[in-house]
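Components:
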Amino acid sequence: MSDIKGTENKSTVAKDSDEKRVGVFVCECGVNIGGVVNTKAVAEYIGTLPGVKVTSVNKFTCSDSGQADIQSKIKEYNLNRVVVAACSPKTHEPTFRACIEQMGLNQYFLEFVNIRDHCSWIHMWEKEKATEKAKDLIRMGVERSKLLEPLQASEVPVTDKALVVGAGVAGMQSALDLADMGFQVYLVEKEPSIGGRMARFDKVFPTNDCSICILGPKMVEVARNKNIKIMSYSEVKAVDGYVGNFNVKIEHKPRYLDVTKCTGCAKCSEVCPVEVPYDFNEGFGTRKAIYVPFPQAVPLRAVLDKENCINCKACAKACQSGAINYDMQPSYTDLNVGVIIGAVGFKTYDPEPRHDFGYGLYDNIITAMEFERLLNAAGPTGGHVVRPSDCKEPIRVGFVNCVGSRDKATNIYCSGVCCMYTIKNAQLLKEKRPETDHTIMYMDIRTPFRGYEESYNRSRNLGVKFLRGRPVEVKEDPVTKNIKVRVEDTLAGEIRNLEFDLMVLATGIVPNEGIGQIQQLLKLSKAADGLLMEAHPKLKPVDTTIDGVFLAGCASGPKDIPYAVSQGSACASRATILLKNKKAITEGITAVVNPDVCVGCQVCIPMCPFQAIKMDEKEGRANVVKALCKGCGTCVTACPTGALEQSHFKNAQILAQVKNVFRFQEVAV
Amino acid sequence: MSAEVAAEIPKGNGWEPNILAFCCNWCSYAGADLAGVSRFQYPPTVRILRVMCSSRVEPAFILKALKDGADGVLVAGCHIGDCHYIDGNKNAEIRINNTKKALAKLGLDGRLRLEWISASEGLRFSEVIRDFTEEIKKLGENPVKEVKK
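Structure:
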């Protein structure tokens, strides 16, 4: 490590804190920077800038010795501003903020200059120009650093209660983990029963265990947990507030019966004369207008579907506990919670509108979810897979993968689970009826996790055929109603004409309506695929850009069950950091109103996407709610009087960079 | 050295413009980082200034840059719909388009550019810089800048 400038007589070091004493630390990052940029020349030049008291070149500034160098120079030269010229602030800004804070400097007195990603790495063969550019970039940083102001991250109290939206397997896991840690949890589910999509699956891959047999006990555990308040058949209607202090309005949809009286005996269903397609069975079979959602439902209570009710009042007569109430109105609960976990789930792609592979045109083409219900012993056929056209059990079954996935016309992403559930479905039917013949038409088979490849191998050993190719023509035999498929076997390089008794489409995972709702309510962002965005795809996979809001399950991208459960637990763990500490640190960078300049014109108020600016009617000026402000600065730009400033990105601070970016001489006039 | 890599090395002749790029912290700055990590070479004409959101860029910053030595100014933000601050980039779009109109009246047409570059578009970042550099080269030196290199 070499000091370029540091010959100043230390006894004359000014104690005046107004004097800006800048130390500049140039990192070589091994050869990443040092191999291109002449760091010594850079440091020499920077040392000549006014206010720069010391410059230092390190092989790795982020290393212990590099940080020790910064700390010793802060002491030695009484520095009050530190400029680090190294990699990206995304990599090491927190490192150096902590480093200078240890020496008693405000962490916002650090200026980070990127001379690696934005300089040495992209100008590898232009060493001189890269060196000049590094000088420019650091000069900008030095000038900005002199104008930096101390900031304090502020603390807000956190209500130690959690709201979990969506009671599928991911949401249930979050709720259970938080409740077991001792926190009060409100679990809101829009359906009459908790359980989510997993409750509808027959068996789950790769171990083929019965889905409801493993989910049911978990549902009961949720219901039994004293710290969990289940709010089924309810929806979030409004969210206000910020991390630690969310005010949430929940609407309880009327079940038209008193849940405290209902015993779930289903006597009402027995007498109800109305039959409608049973949504739980994907429309196969019927349910009554008053019904218990499914046998393992939690809470095990009936619900009256008013749209289909003919008001015959037979159910009221049949109900021995007098629970039925036809005049029930929606009711509301106001909650105050510290954190919100969104586990709003997904729906499967609907091939009906586009008639993908003939779905909706020909009877004997069904979706995998429909197949799942047919396979289920509690399903509409008692576990017998039959053809919709004639209720005969099929022998030749074709499966088409990637329907609504990996397709430019629908969704370009891979849903991740369809290969595995198709493999599982074929196995299950093959095991039930060995005489059946299965052909899976795929693009690629994707089996990335534990036990998945083994399950795939098992299918092959069972005799399931795998054909790489997508059907190009699907027709129905008008007499037999069999499905005739023309498909290119791309491995064999030949066209095959196949005939199936039943064809099953592996439909992908797509956003449901809940995603749009929660996105609006919580001000979350959506990705290009229509699913919700996490704060960072790798390092913050369950956080969102809204502090105190977390995401679990398929709402933030297709997932299998173990992944969704892991995310549920991850959310609980992330949320616990806030709930246990009972306080949240909010970003120091916010908009600030200068009350002497603000005229109360309110131009800024609609600019704020987070509703962080409120009008102080009494004083006639705008006020920034710090806990809500995300520090984007859009209001600052809009402010016509200059009363709003963005801390750490003040006009003067940005202009110092603008003015000093290009090295120049005044033109002689 | 492959032919493609060789072609990437600028010939280093003639005048090189000065470009100031305002990049939003979340998408474009990260896109520029990715260009670096991926070693996508682009001309050393650009200096990046980080702001939290493209909507923070005031027209005054752009005018000041053009006055103080920039031949071109790039404002880069997240794609519409991807803004970290929900719709800050929509505000940026309105402001930058208005500023462009004002600049056209000053004879500075083409010296201000607005681009959406995501954190995953390192290649696009380098292409935008390359393309904008060429465009500014065609326009020549900024006639109103009061100072010269």
